[in-house]
Amino acid sequence: MAELLGIRGLQAAYGQAQALFDISLELAEGEVITLLGRNGMGRSTTVKCLFGLLPAKAGSISFGGERIERLPCHEVARRGLGLVPEGRQIFADLTVEENLVATARAGCGKQRRWNLKRVYEFFPRLAERRQNMGAQLSGGEQQMLAISRALMTNPSLLVLDEATEGLAPVARADIWRALHELKREGLSMIVIDKNIQSLMTLADRHYVIEKGRVAWSGGSQQLRDDPALVHRYMGV
Ligand SMILES: Nc1ncnc2c1ncn2[C@@H]1O[C@H](COP(=O)(O)OP(=O)(O)OP(=O)(O)O)[C@@H](O)[C@H]1O
Ligand SMILES: [Mg+2]
User: Fold this and answer.
1) Which atom of ligand 1 is closest in space to residue 41's alpha carbon?
2) 55 lines ligand 1 (CB under 6 A)
3) Burial of 16 (0-12, 13-18, 19+ CB in 10 A)
4) Cα 15 vs. chain centroid, distance in angstroms?
């Protein structure tokens, strides 16, 4: 399969404090990978660099054959990267529908095009709530909205940072079901989440990040076969 994303030797810092020392990873078209690790190890920082929200100090990021590590966020999005950010960050004082059309974009991916109709079929709950304000939604509905908003940009790679964080079990299950469906459609994804069991079912491969470096990478079966590894790097 063709490489869609390649990060090589990525380094980044917040002021004087270096957070990423050496992040390298690849993702092929249609693949789902995860970034695993304990709190504060550099997963969200890697995402910020990928989206041009934090400058890379060193290293390269190529996406669809093009170098993107120096591009601003809107240019990265224009090339087909969709972000479901940590903390959802939907517009609380816009309606569901306004949230969705605010980010809609033609897209350049090979996947079937996303539009309002399709999003409402995918998450019927959002169709029922289309005139409600973002602030009036439950956590699960807000998360559906955050995912839908990213889908409306028709990304060829969707990145989800803690998409099930703080949700009730039923709402979590809805999100995992949605991600499985997106994978079946061939959408490439990077998923960050605390639920390792769910990640092992969904993802093809995993990267463990420890103190700003890739400490391990491998497939879901390798992870399942090595509980000591999961314990060492994830503390569970
Ligand atoms: N805005 C910021 N300013 C300064 N330091 C930061 C900032 N954001 C993160 N850091 C630091 O960078 C390191 C990596 O944080 P990051 O947010 O990437 O962690 P993470 O792997 O996403 O974990 P989690 O989301 O569970 O906290 C941590 O030491 C963190 O304290
Ligand atoms: Mg994080």
Assistant:
1) 21
2) no
3) exposed
4) 25
Hey, which of 41, 210, 236 would you mutate to test ligand 1's pocket, going by the most ligand atoms within 8 Å of its Cβ? 41
Whole-angstrom Cα distance, residue 175 to residue 163?
8
Angle CA 87–90–95, to nearest 5: 150
Whose Cα sits closest to atom 17 in ligand 1? 44
CA 141 to chain CA mean position, Å: 17
Burial (CB count within 10 angstroms: exposed 0-12, middle 13-18, buried 19+), residue 72: exposed
Nearest CA to ligand 1 atom 30: 40
The number of angstroms, rounded, from the C-alpha of 40 to the middle of its chain's C-alpha atoms is 17
Residue pLDDT, tens place only, 105-146: 766 555 668 999 999 999 999 999 999 999 999 999 999 999
Length of the chain: 236
